[in-house]
Amino acid sequence: MSRIASIFDAFRSIRVGVIGDVMLDTYCWGRVERISPEAPVPVVEVSRREHRLGGAGNVALNLSRLGARVSVLSVIGADDEGVILRGLFRELSIDDSHLLSCEDRVTTQKTRIIAKNQQMMRLDSENSGRIGSSMQ
Question: Is residue 132 part of a domain?
Answer without folding.
Answer: no
